[in-house]
Amino acid sequence: MERITRLLDDAVGTVFPSAQVVVVDDGRELLAHAVGTTLEQPFDLASLTKPLCTAALVLRRVRTGALTLSDRPRPEATIAQLLSHASGVPAVLSLGDPLRPSPEMRRACIEHARTVALDYEPGTRSVYSDLGFILLGDAVERTGTPLDRAFTEEIACGADIAFGPNPAAAPTEGPRGVVHDDNAKAMQGVAGHAGLFGDVRSVSTLVRAWVDAWHGDDALLDPALVRLAWERAGVPGSTWGLGWDHPSESHSSAGTAWPRTGVGHLAFTGCSVWIDPPQRRWVVLLSNRVHPTRANERIRQFRPMLHDAVLDAMR
Question: What pTM does this model have?
Answer without folding.
Answer: 0.98
